[in-house]
Structures
1.
Amino acid sequence: MKTKVDQLTMLQYICILVNSTIGISVLSLPRWGATNAGTAGILATFIGLVLFFIFLMAILLITSAYPQHNFFEIICLHLGKTLGRIVTIGFSIQYVILTSVIIREFTEVMATTLLRETPVEITIFVLVLTVALSTQKSLIDYGYINYFYFPFIIIPGLLLISLAFPSGQYSNILPVLGNGITLSKIFITSIDIVILPFFQIGLFTLFLVIPNIKRPKKALKGGVIGWLIITMMIMLMTTVTYAVFGVEQIKDEVWPVLALTRTIRLAIPPLQRLDVFFILFWVITGFTTIFSGYLIATSFFAQSCRMSHTKLPYLFSPAFFLIARTFDNHVQLYEFMQQIGHITFAITTSLLMILVIITLFKKRRTANETPQ
Amino acid sequence: MARKKTRSNPKQTDALNTMLKQGEREVDPNLSTNIDKLEGFFDRDSDFTVRPFKLIGKYPAAIIYLDSIVDKKGINQDILKPLMNQQSNYSFEALTFEQIKTVIYEELIYQTRGSEETKWTSIIEHILRGYTIVLVDQIKLAFAFDTFDVAERSISQPEAEQVIRGPRDGFIESLSTNISLIRFRLPVPSLRIKSLKIGQLTQSKVAVFYLDSIVNPSLLESVIDRLNQIKTDRVLDAGYIEEQIRDAPKSPFPQIQYTERPDVVVGNLLEGRVTIIVDGSPFGLIAPATITQFLHTPEDYNEHFLISSATRMIRLIALVLSLIMPSLYLAAISFHPELIPTRFAIAITSGRTGVPFPLFLEIFIMEIAMEILREATIRMPKQIGAALSIVGVLVVGQAAVEAGFVSPLTVVIIALTTIGSFATPSYNIAIALRLLRFPMLLMTTLLGLYGFMISWIIISNHLLSLRSFGVPYLQPLSPGNWNDLKDAIIRTPLRWLKYRPDALNTKHKQRLK
C-alpha cells in the first residue's frame, strides 16, 4: 500500500508535465513554423499545441479507466499479455531513439555555445551518465526534482520574453494567416511541430505519473493547467521570436530563440552578455526533458519485466550514447528528427486511438451493466 | 525512597559468570568471602576501596566503592555515620531478615536512590557506576546507594554556537545536568526522556527526548528502532550515534542537526522533533533535520523578523557562493572571457601577467592552501592561532601576490569563498559544501560552464532525493509547503507561525489550542 508521502501531488505532476515538454527543442521551434508556413507559423504552432492537447486528453481518458495501473498493465488489459509486452518494449525502444535525438540536439546547442572545441562524444557521455545517475532515484524523487527545477525553467523563460519584447515589431508577426498559404499547409506544418520528440516525451510522462498521483481524480485538472502553462510559454516565446526577427531571419537561424538571447543587453556592466546565463538555465531545461525520456524508456522496459526502473539505469546508457553520436551535424540530426518523429507519431496515434476506442466501449459496457 | 532497577548487559554478565564459579552467582552470607570475591574481581585497582566497620557498633559490615567516582563526603555523612551510630537502639537479633532490610533501607540511611542486589553481576555494575555497596555479615544481600560524583566543568557559553542576543548556557558532558537544562526550560508533563544503553563495552547512557503530546509516533519509533540497531563497542560522543542512524550514510550532507544549546533543543522539541543526548557529550542530536534548519540560529527569533529574514538570506547566499564561486570564476576566465566586460578584462589580465600556473592550478593550490590554513587554525591554541592567521594573511595573501605566484583576483575569490563558508551557522553543512567544491572545480576545469551546470544538477538531485527520517531534505522548497516556508529561508512574524512544521506530521498541528 502506498502511503501519502510516496505519492505525487498535483503540483508535482504539473511541473513534470511542463518541464518534460518545454525542452531544448523550444530553441529551434520557431524555425519549423517559419520555414514551412511563414508568418502563419505562429498559428501552426498553436494548432500543434491544440493537437497536443487532444492527445493529452486521450491519454487522460485511457488512464482514467485504470488510474492505479501502469502503461504495461493497461496495454495488457486491452491487448493481452504477449502483445502488451511487445508493444511496451517497442515503446521503450521508441523512447530510447527519441531521447537520444534530444540528447544530440542538446549537445549540438552546447557545442555551438559553451563547448566549441570539446568533442560531442564527451558532452553526450557526461549527460547520459548524469541522467542515468538520476534515474536510479525513485519516481517520487522525480516529482521533487521537477518541482524544484520548475522555477529555474519558467522564470528565465519569462525574463527572456519580457526583455526581448520591447525590441519586437508588430509588423513582423503579420499576417497571422500567412501569405498565400492554404489552411491544409498550415495544418501539415502544425503536425510537423507536434511530432517533435519533446512533445511526445511530455505526453508519455503522464503514463508514469498518473498511477502514482495522490488524487487521480485531479489528473484532468492538472493536465489542463499543465497544458495552459506549456502553451503560454511556447506561444509567447514563438511570438516574441517572430516579432523580433521576422520570418526571413528566423529561417537563417538554427536556434532562433538562442539568437534571441543574444539580442538582449542590460546596461549593468557584468550582465552585458546574457546569453551564457540563459544557456545555463537551458541546461536544466534540457536535462528535465532528457531525464523524462530516459525514465520513460527504462520504466516501460522495467514494467514489462515486472521490476523497478531503479534497478536498470545503466542498461540503456550505451544505446543512448551510440544513437546520439551517430549524427554528423545538426542538419542531418534535424532531418532524422522529422523522419523519426513522423513514424513514432503515427505509431503513438494509432495505439492511442485503439486504446481510446476500447476504453470507450468498455466504459459504455460497464455503464450498461450497472443497474439503473 | 526511589528504587531503581538497572538492567545488566548480557555480554558482560556472561563474562562475569564464567569468572564466578557455578553456584556462587549470588551474595554469600559470609562477609569476608564476599569481600574476597570483589577484591578478586577488581584485582587491587588503585581506586577500589573496602571500608570495614561495625554496624551500630555490633555487627561486622563493610562498604565498597570506587573512590574516584564517588562523593566521599556524602558517604561519610549519609551512609557511614548513620550505620555506625552506636546510640542507635536497634537490636538486630530480635529482627527478621525482612525487617533488617527495612530498617537499613528506610530508617538508617539518608540516600535518595538505592536498591537491594543479590547478583554479583549487578553489584559489580553498580560499583562501576559510582554506587556504594553496603554488605553486612550474615545477610545474603547487598545494598547499593547512588553516590556517583565526578568532576564536571561549569555551564558555559557554547563555543561553536555563539549568539549576540540569546541565552548563554550550553550543554556540558554530564547527562543529568543537560537534562536539568532542558527541564528548566520545558516544565511540562509531556516531556519524555527515554533512556537507552548503547555500546557493548562503554554501555553509554543515551537519552531520547520528545514531547509525548506532539511528536509523531512513527518518527519516535524509527528513532528508537535505529538506536536499538546500533552495533558498536563504544559510544564516546554523539557523532558515533549520528553516523549510524542517518538515512544515507554515504552522503556528505548532515541529515541530523547537532547543537550545544538547550534553547535550540527545546525549540525543536516543541516543533515535534526528537533529541538524542549521549552521556559524556555536550552535543544534542536533533532529528529529523532539513537543509533550511542548518541556516537557522536561535537569534533569528529574537531579532526583528525583517532583519532575521535578511540575515538568513545572506547566509544562504554565502553558503551557495562557498560552493560555486571558484568554479564560476574559473569558467568565466578560462572558458568564457566574453562574459567579462572589457574594463574588467583588462584589470584581470594585468593581474594575471607573470603568474606561472594555468588558472585552474592556481585556484587548486590556493584552495588547498586555504584548507591547510583553516585546519591549522582550528587545532592551534588561541594565542598561536592569532599569530598563525597573521602569517597566513601575510604569506598567502600579500607575499604570494607580490611574488607573482597568484593573481590578486584569485586571492579575493578564494577569501570570499572561505569567509562564505564560515558565515553558515552549522559547521557540518558548510564543510560538506567545501568538500563538494573540489569535484565541482574539477568538472568546471574539464567542461567549463557545462561541467559546472552538470555538477550543480548532480548535487541538487542528490539533495532532492535525500531524506532525514523520511522527511525530504529540501522540504519546504521541494516538495513545496506554504506553511513551512514561513520559517525556512525567511522568518515571518511569530504570530504567523501558528502551525508546527507540516513535514513532521505532528499530533497537534496547531501550536496553540
2.
Amino acid sequence: MSKSRIRPRVLVPLAAAASLSLLLTACSDDSGSEASSTTKGDVTLEFWSWTDGIEAQTKVWNKEHPETQIKFVNAAGDTAYQKLRAAVNAGTAPCLSKMDGMNLANFAADGLLTDVSDFAAKYKDAYTVAAWNAVSPGGTTFGIPMGSSPLFTAYRADLFQKYGIQAPKTWNDLIAAGKKVQQKNKNVKIYNMAGEDPSTLVDLSWEAGAQWYRVDGDHWVVDFTSPEALKAGDIVQQLVDNDLASSASYADPGVFKTWDLGKTIAMTTSTWRLPIYDTNFPKSKGKWQLADSPVFDIAKPQTSSNFDTTGVLKGCKHPDRAAEFAAWLSSTKESLTALTDSVSKSGLFPAVKDVSPYVDKIIPTEMFNGRSDSAQVITTAASRVGEQWQYGPNYAAMYSEMQKQWGQVTKKQLTVKDMLTSLQKWTVDDLNRKGIKAVAGS
Amino acid sequence: MSTLTRPPKVATDSPVRRSSPRRAGSRGARKGLLFALPFLLGFLATYVVPIGYAFSQSLREKKSSGLGFGPTRVVFTGFSNFASILGDGDFWSSTLRTLLFSAAQITVMLGLALLLALLLDGVAARTVRFFRAALLIPYVVPAVVSTVMWLFLYSPTGSPLLDLAHRAGTDVTFFGGLNTYLSLGNLLTWQGIGFNMILISASLQALPRELYEAARLDGAREWRIAWSVKIPTSPGSWC
C-alpha cells in the first residue's frame, strides 16, 4: 500500500487550484525576481504550516533569534494550496510555507516561488541527495527539505507463516509469494492497489531506477518507456493479471480493515503512517513485522520516498533569513529531537543524512512481534532512496492524467505498457505546448 | 376636465411639483437607481466583473520557457482553449453522462416528491406537519455530516447495510457499473426529496377547496382527483 505520494483528499483542491491558477496568475507575469543580498537588521517572516508541533518549535526559534521573528500561521484545510496561490498573486503571501515535493515543483513551474539556490547552498550537506532533489526541480533550489517518508514493507507475520511464505526480497519474490497465497486461498491478497491511486506505479518506477523526467542540458527528456520504467510496469501488470492485489480504496473510511482482518497481508508503508497503526489495526496488534521494501536489483537496492518541504514564496524579501530558519527547523538536533518526539504529534521523519538518533521514538513497538529490527528497516529505507527521481514542471497535471487511466489498468481494460506509452506522448506534448523544451526519451 | 388635469392648488411650492412630468420621471428613475445601487455595485463587483475577468483569462495561456521553472508569461491565444476543450472526447462523454444521469435522477426524485406531497395532502393537518419536518431533515443536515454518513453507509469494508445484506445471503455492492449511478442517485434523491415535496405540497395547499368538492360531487375518487385536479392545477411548483 503505497499511498504516500498523494492522498485523494488533496486531489480535488489540487485540481481546483490548478485551474484557478490559470485565472489568478495571469496578471502577474514576471516571477522570481532575484532577491537582494544578505539581510541586515531585525525582520519578521510569515510561515504557513499545518504540521502539529511546528508552532511550538517556531516559539523556540523566536526566543533564540530576536533578529528573525517567525509569525506562524496554521493554514490547515483542504484549500491550503489554493489559498497560498491566491495569496502570492495578491502580494500577501507568507515568506515560507509547508508544501510537498510535488506541489513545490508545481508552484515553481507557475512562477510562484523564489530562487534561493545561492542562500540555500550552504545547508545542502545536511540533507540526503534525494531530499535536496525534491526542493531543486530542474536544478534550481526553491526551498529547504522538511521531512521524508521512505518506503518499507509491513506484513502480517502470522499469516505469512500460515501460508508458508517469507518476506519478499525482490518484487519477483512478491509476485511468487502472492501466487502461492492465491493457491491456498483465493480471497487473500498479498498487496493492495486502489483504483484511484497510481502511486504504486510511481514508487516501483522510482525503485527500478526509472527517470520519467530527466534534465539534459537545456531540455527535458521524458521517458516513461525506458527498460527500467517497463520493468516496474511489468510488476504492476503481473499484480493485476494474476489478481494478486485487493482494490480497497483510500476514500473508504474502513480501508484499514482490509489488513486488520487479514484479507490483504502485506503493504508498502512509511514513517508517517507508523503513529496511526494503533488506531487502525486494533485486532492485529503484535502480529506485524517490518521488512525492507522489495527491490528490483539486489546489487543496487533502492526505495522511494515522499518529501515534505518548506518552500520560499515569491515576494519573500529576506530569502536568506527564510532559508536559515527552515534549515534550523529541519536539520538541527535541537529542533528534530523535539519534532520527532511523539509528544509533538508531528508524524515527521527527518530528511537529514543521519536519521539514527530519531528512529527509535517513532516505532509503535506494541504493533510488532519483535522478530525483526524495526529501527534497522527504517534507517535502511532512509539511506537507500533512489537519487535519480525528479519532478518535472507538469508533474501534477501528468499525475491527474495518469489517475484517469489508472482506473482502467486496475480493471484490466488497459495495459500498463499502453498507459505508459500514452503518458509519454501526453507529457511531451503538454510541455511543448507550454513552451518548455522536452523530447521523448525512447 | 380642467380641474382634473390641473395640479391641485396647494400653497406649498415643493420642488417636486414645479418640475415638469418628464423631469419628475427621470428624477424617479434616479431615485430608483439610488435604491438599487448597493445591490448593483455588489452584483457588478462579485458577479459581472469576475465573469468578465474569467472570460478574458480564458483567451490567454501561460507560457514558460527552457526547463519550465523560470519566469512565466501570459500570451493571448484567442479561442484555442475552447477549441481544445470542445475537441476533447472526455469532455463530451462526461457532459452526456451528466445529462443522462440528471434526466433519470431528477425525474425519479420529482415523481417521488409529488407522490409524497399528494399523500400528505390527503391526511390530517397534524400528521402533515410531522411528516413534512421529518422528510425535510436530510435537506437541512449539513453536507459535511451527510457526506460522512454516506461514506460509512456505502463503505465496502464497514457498511452496516452490506453487513445485513451479506447475512441475508446476498452479494450486493454499491459500486461498479450501474450500481455506482444507483448509489449516487439514491443519495441525491434522499437529500432533495424533502425540499421538493415541501414546494409541491405548498402549492397543493393553495388550491381552492371548492375544486375538490366539485370533483367529488361529480363522483371522482381520491386518485382521480389527484390525477385530474391536483396535478394539472398546481403548476406553480413545476418550474
